[in-house]
Design a protein that fits this description.
The protein contains 19 helices and 18 strands. With 542 residues, it is α/β, with parallel strands linked by helices. The two termini are 51 Å apart. Strand 15, helix 16 and strand 16 form a beta-alpha-beta unit. A 6-stranded mixed β-sheet has the order 5-6-7-3-8-9, with helices on both faces. Strands 14-15-16-12-17-18 form a 6-stranded mixed β-sheet, with helices on both faces. Helix content is 39%, strand content 21%. Among the domains are: 82 residues, no CATH class; 59 residues; 219 residues, 3-Layer(aba) Sandwich (Rossmann fold). It is globular and about 90 Å long.
C-alpha cells in the first residue's frame, strides 16, 4: 500500500498540491489525470523519490519493490539491451554481479566460497536462473527482436529504447509500478499486449497517459488533479468523464428536483456498469461501480476547446478523390506501391501503415508538398482541402507575430480583429493570451492554433496526420467530437485508439505490396483474421 499524508508542493507563490491525503491499494490500477501543468508527472516523481514535497510524506508497505518507467533515454547507453532490462530489478542484478565477480577471482578463497553459496541461495529464491530468459521474452513481447538483445542500448533508435525501458520497469513483477506515458511510440499490437499484462497485474499501478482507450482498459480508478487537490474516483476514464459532465449539467439545472437528479445518476451508473462486461477487468470493475456513492461524482473544472469543422464554404460534389497506381520510395526504401483508391463522399478513412514514414509521405503527396512519386491522384473540382501535418514547425518558424496576426494570415476574407479573436477564443486563448508571440508557443498551443487555422479555411475535406500529438485529454476529446460531427470527408492517421474507432467508417492500410481497403470499424479491422493474412502477404513482398 502507498499512503500519501498531508502532501503539499509549492514553487514560489504557485501551489501545485495542498494537503493531499490518499491511499493506493494493491490490485488496483490508478490513472492519474489533470490538465497540462496540473502536476501529474511531478506527483509521480514525488512518489518515486526523485523530488521532495514541500511538506507531508509518502510511505510504503515495508519490503515492497517499486519500479519506474525511466524517462532518460540515454541513462543506459553503455549497457546491453538485456542487461538494461535486468537492472530493473536492482537487488537481483546486484546479486548477479557480485556472483560473477566472485567467480572471476583468481585467488578464490574459502570465505568467497561461503559468500558465493549464500548468493546462490538468494539468487535461486529470486528465480534468478530464469531471469535472462524472462527478460528476453518481455523484450520480444514489446517488439524488440532477439538479434538486438545483446547490442548496446545506444545502438537502438528512439522508439526501440522506449520499449527497452518499459521492459525494464515491468521486469521482475515489482509490487508498485509507476508508468508515465507508457504507450508513447508503441504500435497497436504492443499496446494490446501491455493492456493484457497490466489488466492481470496484482500489484499497485499508477499510470499517466493521454490514450483514453488504454486508460479505459487498464484502470480501476482515476486520480483527478484539480484545484490543487487530488481525488480518487472509482471507475475508468470514460466513466469519470461522462459522470463529471453529467454532474456539471445537473449543477447548472437549478430547477431539476433532487430525486430526479439522483435517479438520472443511478440510471447512468447502471448503464455504465453493464458496459463494463467488455473490459479486461470486468468483474472487479463492475463490483466497484456497483458500490459507487453518488456523492462522489463531482463536476469537472476542465475547459474543453470548441473544435468545430462544420462551416463548409462549399458543398462537395460526388467526385472526391481518385488515386491510381501510387508508389513512393524514400532513400531506396519502398514505402508503398499499387495504391488504387476511390474516396466516396462522407468517407471518414483511417490511413494506417506499419511505417509512419509511409503515412506521412502519403499526406505530403496529397497536399502538394512532395512531387517525387509514381502514379497519379485527382481531386474533385468542388473539393477544398485543409490539413494538419505531423510536423507543424514550418508554420511557426521565423515568425514573431502575435496570435491575432498569425491567424489573420490564414483568413482569406474576414480580417477583423474581433472575428479572429473569436476563433482563438474557441481554442482557449483569451484576453492577453492572444497577444502572445507565436514563436514561443508550447506544442499543445501550436496544435490549437492549427485547429483555428483549419476551421477558418471552411474546407469540405480534412486531412490529419497524427493530430493528437502534444494535446491534453481535454483537447483530444474535443477533437474527437469535432471529427465525429464533421459532415464532410476525412482522411486521418492517429495512434489514439478511441479516436480512430469512433471516427472511422473505413480503414485503409498502405503497404509495400499494395493496399488493404476495408469498410469496417478500427476494432473490427485489427481483430480480423482475413486482414491479418492479407497484411502478412503484402508486407512480405519486401
Amino acid at each position: 500500500m502507498i499512503t500519501v499524508s498531508n502532501l503539499s508542493l509549492r514553487y514560489g507563490k504557485r501551489t501545485l498540491f495542498e494537503e493531499v491525503n490518499l491511499k493506493f491499494i494493491r490490485g488496483n490500477c490508478y490513472g492519474v489525470i489533470g490538465a497540462n501543468g496540473a502536476g501529474k508527472s511531478t506527483f509521480m516523481k514525488i512518489l518515486s523519490g526523485e523530488i521532495d514535497p514541500t511538506s507531508g510524506s509518502v510511505s510504503f508497505t515495508p519490503g515492497e519493490r517499486m519500479a519506474v518507467l525511466n524517462q532518460n533515454h540515454y541513462a543506459f547507453d553503455e549497457f546491453s539491451v538485456i542487461e538494461t532490462v535486468l537492472k530493473g530489478h536492482a537487488e537481483l542484478y546486484s546479486v548477479m554481479k557480485e556472483k560473477d565477480e566472485l567467480y572471476a577471482k583468481e585467488d578464490f578463497t574459502e570465505k568467497d566460497g561461503e559468500r558465493a553459496g549464500d548468493l546462490e541461495n538468494i539468487f535461486a529464491e529470486m528465480d534468478g536462473w530464469n531471469a535472462e530468459n524472462n527478460a528476453a521474452t518481455m523484450l520480444s513481447n514489446l517488439g524488440i527482436k532477439e538479434d538486438l538483445h545483446y547490442k548496446l542500448l545506444k545502438e537502438l533508435d528512439g522508439n526501440q529504447k522506449v520499449r527497452v525501458l518499459l521492459a525494464q520497469a515491468l521486469f521482475g513483477k515489482p509490487d508498485i509500478l509507476l508508468l508515465d506515458e507508457p504507450t508513447n511510440d508503441l504500435d497497436i499490437h504492443t499496446i494490446s499486449w501491455l493492456e493484457d499484462f497490466l489488466a492481470g497485474y496484482e500489484g499497485i499501478i499508477l499510470v499517466v497517459s493521454h490514450d483514453r482507450h488504454f486508460l479505459d482498459t487498464v484502470c480501476t480508478h482515476v486520480v483527478d488533479i484539480d484545484f490543487g487537490k487530488m481525488t480518487i474516483y472509482t471507475g475508468n476514464y470514460t466513466f469519470w468523464y461522462e459522470s463529471s459532465q453529467l454532474a456539471l449539467r445537473q449543477r447548472s439545472d437549478q430547477n431539476k428536483k433532487l430525486e430526479d437528479k439522483v435517479k438520472e445518476l443511478q440510471d447512468f451508473i447502471r448503464r455504465f456498469s453493464a458496459n463494463a462486461s467488455k473490459s479486461k477487468q470486468a468483474t472487479s470493475r463492475k463490483k466497484a461501480l456497483d458500490k459507487i456513492n453518488l456523492d462522489e461524482i463531482q463536476p469537472s473544472n476542465r475547459k474543453y476547446p470548441a473544435i468545430l469543422f462544420n462551416h463548409q464554404g462549399r458543398e462537395a460534389g460526388d467526385q472526391i478523390l481518385q488515386i491510381e497506381n501510387l508508389q513512393k520510395e524514400l532513400n531506396g526504401e519502398l514505402l508503398f506501391s499499387n495504391i488504387n483508391l476511390l474516396v466516396n463522399k462522407g468517407d471518414k478513412i483511417a490511413i494506417l501503415s506499419e511505417n509512419s514514414l509511409a503515412t506521412t509521405a502519403f499526406y505530403h503527396i496529397l497536399t502538394g508538398n512532395d512531387a517525387d512519386y509514381k502514379g497519379t491522384f485527382k481531386w474533385g473540382v468542388t473539393i477544398n482541402t485543409a490539413s494538419i501535418p505531423n510536423d507543424n514547425s514550418d508554420f511557426f518558424a521565423g515568425k514573431d507575430s502575435n496570435l491575432i496576426d498569425w491567424l489573420r494570415e490564414y483568413s482569406a476574407a474576414e480580417k477583423d480583429e474581433q472575428f479572429i479573436r473569436s476563433f482563438l477564443g474557441r481554442m482557449l486563448f483569451s484576453g492577453e493570451e492572444v497577444l502572445k508571440k507565436s514563436s514561443v508557443l508550447s506544442g499543445g498551443e501550436k496544435m490549437r492554433c492549427m485547429f483555428s487555422r483549419m476551421m477558418l479555411q471552411q474546407a469540405n475535406l480534412l486531412l490529419f496526420d497524427e493530430p493528437t500529438n502534444h494535446l491534453d485529454l481535454e483537447s483530444i476529446t474535443a477533437l474527437n467530437n469535432g471529427m465525429k460531427d464533421f459532415r464532410g470527408t476525412i482522411l486521418f492517421t492517429s495512434r489514439d485508439h478511441e479516436l480512430t474507432e469512433t471516427v472511422a467508417n473505413r480503414v485503409i492500410e498502405l503497404t509495400p505490396g499494395g493496399i488493404i481497403d476495408k469498410l469496417m470499424t478500427y476494432d473490427e479491422y485489427i481483430n480480423s483474421e482475413v486482414v491479418k493474412r492479407q497484411r502478412d502477404e503484402l508486407y512480405s513482398v519486401v
